[in-house]
Amino acid sequence: MPKLAVIAGDGIGPEVINEALKVLDIIEPIYRPGIELEMLPYGADHYLATGETISPAEMRRLGEEFDAILVGALGDPRVPGNEHARDILLGMRFQLDLYVNERPARLFDERLTPLKEKTTGDIDLVIFRENTEGLYAGIGGAFKRGLPDEITIAEEINTRRGVERIIRYAFHWARENGREHVTMADKANAIPAHMLWRRLFDEIGKEEFPDIHRETRYIDAMAMELVRNPEQFQVIVTGNLFGDILSDLASAIVGGLGLAPSANRHPGFVSMFEPVHGSAPPMAKKDIANPMAAILSMGMMLRTVGSPEAALMVERAIRAAIVEDRVTRDLGGDYGTREVGDWIAEWIRRA
Ligand code: NAD
Ligand code: IPM
Ligand code: MN
Question: Distance, CA 250 to ligand 1 centroid (Å)?
Fold first, then answer.
């Protein structure tokens, strides 16, 4: 029995997770993934009430006892330093060593792209974001805080092991999933440390994946090309910060953050699934957030724990909801969060 931990989190997190679990409930008796669920309380409310973000013991338990973790979003204006989100969200990525951040962007319906006549409609790409180092490592500090010559330093970490494993994963994924093409984005022209990425990308590509076509782009040109001609990309591999930015951009060309799911993985170990979006505090408790990113993230979880038919059904239901305009206002509809979840659950039940 796969064990799933759920952290609904802050803002719209609990609302979108509620819909993802509603859909999982419908799926359970039909496809029998046999998922055993445990709800965990971590988030801003828990932190403000108890002073605890997440304990080291609980973090260990997540790694040892669970197959998957489903997260809503973390971030709350009452915690301006965002320390709970860093401990919980970045904590899971770093401490559980979930080095692959897989962020697909697929156009479900041509009406969803703001690019309109600029695209053939064939947008289907996956970003593999390095998830454990880069500028997110938190190495650095502050000096002379509050003084006119205050200094803050953040160092970017790129290890051979870290860069190699995400590049290798992206190539491997491309081959296993019938893609011919991998693009790497870096800033080696201004940041010499990024030559490590270029060197390893070429070495690994040439020696281990000669069947996959490879190309490199500087991140600025990559961002431009992603808007100008997104169909050219199949698999993108990049560092932590660039991957964060590109994944919001990629979501926008296929309908927005409300539709963007993600997986955080370390093959053979626990995986964590979450929408790419955040807690969107102004939208919280209004029944207006799009739950599709959370539902699709739950679908990615189903595929990972061995229920690919159920995962496919989730994707088909999302597409059907979009085609029939059973969508929230970010996609131009007038459905509420719960109505979208109800409609998708009912579609799966009837299919
Ligand atoms: P955000 O993703 O929460 O919102 C950005 C924009 O996208 C907003 O305009 C919002 O209206 C829209 N949006 C997001 N999710 C949506 C949905 N499901 N349906 C419809 N529209 C949606 O990003 P932000 O405003 O920069 O950050 C808010 C908080 O979330 C911050 O505390 C941030 O640190 C946190 N955050 C958390 C995560 C995470 O937990 N994985 C990711 C990103 C941001
Ligand atoms: C994301 C988020 C996080 C990140 C924040 C909340 C730390 O933006 O998951 O994309 O930057 O990774
Ligand atoms: Mn982000």
Answer: 15
